[in-house]
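Record type: ASSEMBLY
Status: queued
Input:
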Amino acid sequence: MWTFVVRRLLQSVIVILGVTLISFISLQMGGDPTFLFVSERASAEEIEMIRRALGFDRPLHIQYLTYLWNIVQGDFGNSLSYRQPAMNIVLGALPATIELTLFSMFFAISLAIPFGVFAAIYRGTALDGSIMTMAMFGQSIPSFWMGIMMILFFGLYLQWFPISGQVPFLMPLFQGDFATAFRNLPSSIYHLIMPAVAVGFYSLSRNARLVRSSMLEVLGQDFVRTARSKGISERAVVVNHALRNAWLPVVTMIGLEFGFLLGGVVVIETVFSWPGIGRLVFNAINQRDIPVVQASVIVLSVIFIALNLIVDLIYARIDPRVKL
Amino acid sequence: MSKTRSLLVASAASMVLAGSAMAQVSDDTIVVGLSADITTFEPAAISSRDNANIVRHIFDTLFSIEGDGSVVPDLATDLAISDDGLAYVYTLEAGRTCHDGEALTAEDVAYSFNRAKDPANAFTGNTPGFVFSSVGFVDAVALDDLTVQINIAAPNPIAFGLLAEVYVHCMDSYAAMTLEQAATTPIGSGSYRLVSWTPGSEVVLEKVADPGTFQNIVYRIIPEASTRSAELMAGNVDIITNVAPDQVDAINASGVAAVQSVQGTRRMYVGFNLSEPFAAMPGGDAIQDPDVRRALQYAIDVPTICAQLLNFPCERATGIVNPPNANQALTPYPYDPAMAEQLLDAAGWPRLDDGNRFTIRFQAGKGRYLNDENVVLAIAQYLSDVGLNIELDVMEWGSVYVPLIRQRNVGPLFFLGSGGALWSPLYDMTDLAKVDSGTNYTHWSDPRWFDRWADIAAANTPEEQRVIIDEMLQVFYDDGPWLHLYFQPDFYGVSGRLNWTARPDEKVYLFNATLN
Amino acid sequence: MTDTTDAFALAPVKGSGLRRGLARAGRSLVAAKWPLLALLILAIVAFVAIFGPLISPLDPNRQNIMLRLAAPMAEGPNGATFVMGSDALGRDVFSRLLYGARVSLLVGISAILVGGTLGVTAGLVSGYFGGWIDDVLMRLGDIQLAFPFILLAIMFLVVLGPGLFNLIVVLGIGQWVTYARIVRAQTLSLREKEFVEAARALGDSTASIIFRTILPNIIAPLTVIASFNVASVILAEAALSFLGLGVPPEVPTWGSMLAQSRDQLIANKWWLAIFPGLAIVVTVLSFNILGDWLRDFLDPRLKERG
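Status: finished
Output:
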């Protein structure tokens, strides 16, 4: 197993290099970024001075290699907009997105499993039909539309939930300020509910259908029929036999879910004024704040690779058929 | 099971209560909803309007410009300009201190100016990039404890207004800070100090001195227009900026808040790029002819665009200068497509077999100005109705359009706005101070305009200046490089509990806001 | 990662089975009812996409700003009626919906084709040859998956600029890894099967083996995946329009119409969102239902349970 881990880690380094190279190239493709950082009244000498100060006068490959060399030493450069270390800005925005993603995952999976299981057990009935209809709709609705409608209906009209904004929980937690973190917790959750539902509804729908088909597959297998014919109660069949085998794909689903949700948050972070990494990267790309984009991309890739690795390891542990 | 259920109900109830408690804004706090993120508190790096609006509460300036364009003293009590116009000597008010207790003297003022210009800091904010470049700032020298002299390279009739925008801070505190620290911990001398900044989320200020009514100011970043309006209508926010024109009626109908629509000072126009490379492009040759440009003035129905797309009745601009200071003899071009067609025929551009006179590219950025995408589409249709085959090219504002603008490489037709002011017509006109100015995006070079700047400098009285200005504006009206549109209105949503009047120059200052 | 592929353990396909298969499919569709409705709906959408412009009452790009934000059934220019109301520039929503069908489907299907072609080729080559090609391609896939797709799309579109072509390419590139992985897994398992061995023994060229023997066995699961992906491409296009990176402003697509309605929702101009929204929901639903049916239909194990 350890050779697998080591080999995967080495490959991950290549993946991260690839990711930074792609983002570097694409951001430079639009031409000299200097013009975004100078005033319209700046003279030619001032523009040149800024260009040199920001390092855009060097040839592209030098810029990239210098950047890599700095990363190895832990220096991710300074944000061009904020004039602060880019990694600090990125790590500052990360906890908010993690909160949103985790809560969405929790919402999506904790509902998807019972929905999917019951839809499978009561296959063909009205319960199955209604769950599946909801799931189908959930996969057809654009998240930003859902978000705005939720704000207008639940936030403005009914005033049941706060309309926008975040109350930090993970950030003070990571900083060791437990008092603030737990004092904020009820308010944090309150602010998380609507955005998490907006992000997670698509996931909930898709996962409910996956759980259902996975359960159906398992329920149709021989060992289940054997158990039933032995007279074991339906409930025991479901819980002891079917579920245990069906949750393998669910593990995979959870593993990939985080990455998938992470990608979908840009839109919701904009609609709900959520100060997360999605909005940060979007603004950074629009403002050609290259160090921040690079740092974000690296952080997100590392998270995704780590998750993939963990999922694969768990998979190997659970399913003896899978050989690493 | 029932214990769990009651526990759940209890926590749900407490969350709801917590929520409703949050919704009420207390009497000593004012909450503002902004549409764009702010990035820094370094006074020399401020460049966005939202950033400047916040920071103005933390730092003082030498003079202050009011909403109507008048200039009032702030840190300085008096200004004396040397005869050659190169030295501005400010007399400071005694007894002012910075938030850390340090006394604010001329030495600090000089330091603030010189630090912003220092090439080692490579600041790219409004002060070094716009103010200093426009006035030709040389250096600042403290003559004594309360007298400071600002030296500029050449006489400049609008320097006093520009220099009034520079933020002043103390020397000791900033000399001790690194650039990174200065970006997050501002130490000013103004009414408010920074309590906390959560990037992307909110800024909290608290009052330390007068003038200022509210003890706390909270700025919340709310990028989505519908969300901003919803927060205003729910009573969670007192003021919101950049209200979408189509949401004005909903807000006014809510009974909780009302929209103040202000005639702003930002000049919106379609520019004709008259440079040589663009003259070779399709349509670029046509617009070289001032008769063609004048014909196109008649093709656009600006009042309808304002009324329908901006939800604001406006009078069409007659030129580059804001109305109170414009050439009063000029009347706006009316909407007369028949006249436009006639003039285009006369200029030698008849409709060909396919119905088009000529093809021309029209470039614009989106998401920067009020309803800009729709305004651009409407203009494109007006132009094509008189026979132009428009190739519309709408691109992302920040990283695609702005570089083209800065390199003066947009066109042949392009849509743009330029911030203006009410305190001097010359401020509005300096976009075209020189043929090779960075802001002369049209590459216009008519000597009847550019040669007159020397006359303005040589003029002895304001009345003489005014005559020259009017003549220049007449030339601009007849044969200028702009297709005149409108002065962009600004919409501010203001809560019913607040008594505050918006300014026309996009500055949002809360010093004098009060509760109703 | 192999959960979905287990369901596609198939026997080798024979030529004449196609006609029998289609007949069986038809019977299954009629019996299941909802998939039949879905197919009908998609047929209507396709019809609208092709012939829509002929039946559209007004020019979808003609602005009438004096008649903007008119409610459904309000009077339009020249005595016509705004059947579904008019938008922020006074353009007819119904006409834009009809034209939008064309563009939305064009974008959806082209993106799938682009992604599918890239992915299937990569998967076939990767699975059949293995070795370092396999490693490189799979790592390339990892690189792309490590990147939240929307960020990739944003980066390329911000820089390459908007435009239908760029959009299709970006959406297509976002797809290929899914296809590649499934195809690769299938190819790996099929590679060692008897009929492939037989083809090899007979001296068939590698290309022939890949394309004539293995590929037909993979078409079925691919079709299922593709049907689900059309839905996600249409939604991705809507999200990109929301971020300002979709089609140019004059081009109507359902996604961009929905995105442009965002400022009007609070002002109760419901027709701007409901009609394109319903169009998206109905089309996407139909693709999903059809895909579900297709997967059930092709799964030999479920065939027993009927």
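Annotation: Chain A is about 75% helix and 0% strand.
Annotation: The CA atoms of residues 65 and 71 of chain A lie 10 Å apart.
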